[in-house]
Amino acid sequence: MTALLIAALSAALYGAGIAFEHRQAARLPAEAAGRPRMLALLARQPLWLAGAALETGGFVTHAAALRTGSLAAVQMVLSCSLLVSIAVSSGLARRTLPRHCWPAILAIVTAVGAILTLLGPDDHAAGQAPGRLGLAALVTGVITVPIAAAGLLATRRHTRALLLAVAAGLADTCAAVVTMAFTHSLAHGLGAAVTSWPPYALIVAGLASLALAQTAYQTDAPLITLPTITAVMPLASLAVGIVVLHETAQLNGARIVIMMACLAVAVTALAGLARAGAAVAEASKRPADDHDAPGRELMDSPDYIGPAWVTAVGFVRGTEAAASQAPVPAGPM
Q1: Contact predicate 221/163, CB 8 Å
Q2: Of 20, 45, 172, 316, which residue is 20 to 30 A from 259 by alpha carbon distance?
Q3: Is residue 109 a part of any domain in this protein?
Q4: Is the pTM of this model over 0.70?
Q5: What is the CA radius of gyration of the chain?
Q6: How many domains does the chain have?
Q7: DSSP string, 297-316
């Protein structure tokens, strides 16, 4: 129970942090997608740094939950971060979310949670061997690479957003497995941890996961990317837990039927959100919004640094107001 409560706190921190990062990543120039330059540009923006700080808190609590809870159970609770991220993201973008989107979002969270509850493992993975965890991370990473490549090469916006979101969800799963290995290595002392592979694999997996997520956010299709990442991450974790980590799954005919029904509900809800996202994006391009164009153009500039101050209430509005007034620093990055 303690692990699930910690995971709930992690979900809230992750959800808010993701929304902040999505807002800023969507404003980057398209040519920065999938390149190391993207992270360098984002690291100069106060809004993104605030999101990164929230996600860091989410990571710490996530690691604590994984220390005593099963991979699938913790990831199931983490899927609730979608509710937070969608709400905060729509508020930051000043886009009114259609009312029919909320039932679809709740349907995704409920369907994913039901699948993990029905098929999830009974045994936690606290005793997993580092070698098996390493194999799980390697398998997940190998599956992620071609999907990420296909997303980067895709020309249609919604296809690109969907593929990159799937890759980001898989990368999050890989990072979660490596995080689990890292927390287990710490049990043997700090000296043993720094001389083993998990800390260094965690750096690589964490950076790859971060880059893929920001590239997916850059498509500015939150009703596609956020639900897809949220759905893929726990389902992939469940598959890894059962197939590679050999966590115990409860399988029978009735559960499989219910699982298939839940999958159908989740896919239908994702498709509905994709259509709603296209409608919201089209509405945001109306001439009435053209007065925001100068501010958006300046924020998109790779040389824009943004204000150095942040307030709890007027954080985003202050950032955008300063963007429309502050000169762009001279010289290349």
Answers
A1: no
A2: 172
A3: yes
A4: no
A5: 20
A6: 1
A7: HHHHSTT----S---SSSHH
